[in-house]
């Protein structure tokens, strides 16, 4: 591939135009992006060249003239359905390039604990160990609530032109034509006669997790400030906002909740009031699935019992009979499900996890 250094863009600008001001603007634009470790992109054609994709395909994606997603639903633990969008191989390749060359070079707010190297549910939980009070706030439909406009502003703030930022935002978002959005001013383009709806982040693509963090930078900044004002510590793991304090002051906790709700709404997010909780001193506190009442995160008792019982009954009755008893239709799915839980247990409690793993390996699984 051609070395796209500042000189490359200087020469390119002279081919495009004889205007010295235009040539200088292109050179400055390219140098600014290169100095930040970002690939300079001037046009839709550039996106196609850099991602080794046809210009026609990129154009259709940007104009929303083609649907490249396989859509299906999965059940949420809390009830209801979650839409998953899986892009085809061509679009996935383009999105992967954006993730690797643009998004992965940026750092989210320090309070963000998901989707980046070095972060984990254990690290997030560790921040809140030994707390006396805890406030947990969940964001409803987190990915879907992040609009194409927010994604556009992320690319724009990185230094890309308005047109390039628009194209990149279109590639990373999907248009959802629901009744709710058709009737909402927030999701409509301004000054248009047609029912053009803003896209949003789809759950299931390689770009959405990192973009969700970058789009939530303002939210993390506000929540960190609010937490500091009320003597709380704040972290966010995707759509889970956690605030903890060693100060036993219920009034402070309630004031904090009110201000966080106001900030979420003003930034276009919807608090999930049903999943909001205030946990008092002495009660069990769970952060990203781990108990934080002691000086280090531990596995919940019911989680350990579930693995222990699953291993025992697989040994006594056999995996096939056990799956029938608990309503698991696929033995292969249950095998992977149990293995995943054991590996998670091992990452939190290596000794206990190794014991579970030893028993798991002794199970005689049917041929699949």
Gyration radius (Cα, Å) is 24 Å
Number of strands: 10
Report the helical percentage: 40-55%
What is the distance, rounded to the nearest whole angstrom, between the alpha carbons of the first and last residues? Answer: 46 Å
Question: Given the C-alpha coordinates, what overall shape results?
Answer: globular
Annotation field: number of helices: 16
Q: Mean pLDDT, rounded to whole units?
A: 91
Instruction: Please describe the biggest sheet, giving its number of strands, its sense, and whether it closes into a barrel.
Output: 4 strands, antiparallel
- SSE order, one letter for each helix or strand: HHHHEEHHEHHEHEHHEEHEEEHHHH
Q: Which structural class do you get from the secondary structure elements?
A: alpha+beta
Q: Any low-confidence stretches, pLDDT <50, length ≥5?
A: none
Within the largest sheet, what's the order of strands? 6-7-3-8
Q: Which range does the strand content fall in?
A: 5-15%
What's the topology here?
Blueprint: H1 6-16, H2 20-35, H3 44-50, H4 55-62, E1 69-75, E2 81-87, H5 89-101, H6 121-126, E3 133-139, H7 148-158, H8 162-172, E4 174-175, H9 179-182, E5 199-200, H10 208-215, H11 217-229, E6 233-237, E7 240-245, H12 250-266, E8 271-279, E9 286-287, E10 290-291, H13 301-317, H14 319-326, H15 331-348, H16 350-361
Antiparallel strand pairs: 1-2, 3-7, 3-8, 4-5, 6-7, 9-10
Helix pairs in contact: 1-2, 3-4, 7-8, 7-10, 11-12, 13-14, 15-16
